[in-house]
Amino acid sequence: MRPLRLPWHQRLLLAVTLGALTGFSCHFRLFWQPDESIYDNLVGQWDYPADPRLAIVAIDDRSLQQLGQWPWPRSTHAQLIDRLQDAGVRRIALDLMFPEPDRKDSRQDAQLAAAIARSGNVILPVLASAGSDEAVPEELLPVPQIASVAAALAHTDIEIDGDGVARGIYLKAGMDSPHWPALGVALAGSPPPLPGLRGPANGEASPYQWRRDNYVRVHYAGPPGSFPQVSYIDVLEGRVPASLLHDRLVIVGMTASGMAPRLLTPTSREAWMSGSEYQANVASMLLTDRAIVPLSPLQQMLASVALVLLTTLAVTAPTSRRWLIACLLLPLPLLSSLVLLRGFHVWYAPVCALSAGLVLLLAWGLWQARYWRRQANHDPLTGLANRMRFEGILRLETDAARRSGKPLTLMLIDVDHFKAYNDTHGHHLGDQMLRQVAQAIGDIARRPRDVAARFGGDEFALILPDTPQEGALALVQQLITTVRHMSLPIGKGRTAHTSVTVGIYSVVPGIHDTASALYQAADAALYTAKEAGRDGYHAAMP
């Protein structure tokens, strides 16, 4: 069976339409949830050895039990900083907020500030906060006495996606402009320029707005518990050997149940990760140069549209191997996403292109099936209905005429002396003659229910519902006259003529008038017309 072929302009129109729909879905992120599901599966087990310099000093349940109710005196944190400094810690990220002075004992602030100053390598957090949804956000910094002696200030803004999973982080953020590095960035000591997607320019926007920049996806070293962790109370009381802390990058943060922020990550949906370990993953990712940078929205759109255009043109290509090519191209968005992620640490969301490819294959398959179905019911040479379709329609119309009590006419048509013409002039000119005769027969079948068919060879038929014998005779006379005046090419500018012989049977079917009986009566009328000398017709009486 001949495959369906589309003209190039229809192929181009289909490709452009699907490309436009793909661009629309990319722009509005219609498939962000399936994209994130694919991302989670690709990175969920993609572990790597965490940077060995990182460690967490955890304010855990045991520390709370021994040191008492939170918050602890700031002098306690000062003692911890001194312990860490004595052990030779390289840098300390103290992930604890001190936005207000100690109202009970002003000496507490002085003691903490003095310890931070002695260390000279303590990083303190900054947080964006608003009292209510309508309130203007503000930066919560440590009290000036403490902030002024810190080695650096860093934001602790954790990015949570719409499904509650922490996949990425803005490496810079701040009020009016993104001037604070993330806590993990400051701990790693990463110099500019930082990786990540750049945010829009500030322009004329309000200065009272928290702005973020340099977005990356966090490449987690593994599930929660991938970094060495010691208890706050053990460090404070000297039970941790100094050798375990020497030259370390330490995060001091809350891990106690019910008090620490709990984060879901792609590495684990069953276990929660603390904010301190999240920042440790950010630092480790930067120290090992493993930040995952997503494509920009424009790059994402262009890549998806290009893949869809390529797949569409391949599927509709006029080649017998297009389905093989299409099956190879269909998974290309997913394969591209995997290669870019694992090979280049670039994230491409593939579902828009995958969805367009699946829609294309479904639509093309339905279209091809419809075309094949039509081909199965039509004669490939003339385009008329074939014998199988003729027999089915004749049965249906016979039943319909019996129920309605209206006449049904069947004509059987033979091309006169076709074998001699075919043998004399060749099959190619014989096929041209059959096409011309078929067109003349098809022109008579003007109404929606009229059916013109070719049995094969030089045999044709016409089914004319709601047509009495008088009407059928007028049509057959028109057909015979049309065929007589045809000019059939026989080569070298010469032409020939032909004629047709027709058998007609018109009847209002009764209970015993089956489709087979109608066919036999029309065939008998055709035989009578041939015996009469051809180039004419005979109408059998009911």
UniProtKB/TrEMBL annotation:
<dbReference type="InterPro" id="IPR007890">
    <property type="entry name" value="CHASE2"/>
</dbReference>
<feature type="transmembrane region" description="Helical">
    <location>
        <begin position="298"/>
        <end position="316"/>
    </location>
</feature>
<keyword id="KW-1133">Transmembrane helix</keyword>
<protein>
    <recommendedName>
        <fullName>diguanylate cyclase</fullName>
        <ecNumber>2.7.7.65</ecNumber>
    </recommendedName>
</protein>
<feature type="transmembrane region" description="Helical">
    <location>
        <begin position="323"/>
        <end position="341"/>
    </location>
</feature>
<feature type="domain" description="GGDEF">
    <location>
        <begin position="406"/>
        <end position="542"/>
    </location>
</feature>
<dbReference type="InterPro" id="IPR050469">
    <property type="entry name" value="Diguanylate_Cyclase"/>
</dbReference>
<keyword id="KW-0812">Transmembrane</keyword>
<feature type="transmembrane region" description="Helical">
    <location>
        <begin position="347"/>
        <end position="367"/>
    </location>
</feature>
<dbReference type="Pfam" id="PF05226">
    <property type="entry name" value="CHASE2"/>
</dbReference>
<dbReference type="InterPro" id="IPR029787">
    <property type="entry name" value="Nucleotide_cyclase"/>
</dbReference>
<keyword id="KW-0472">Membrane</keyword>
<dbReference type="InterPro" id="IPR043128">
    <property type="entry name" value="Rev_trsase/Diguanyl_cyclase"/>
</dbReference>
<dbReference type="Pfam" id="PF00990">
    <property type="entry name" value="GGDEF"/>
</dbReference>
<dbReference type="InterPro" id="IPR000160">
    <property type="entry name" value="GGDEF_dom"/>
</dbReference>
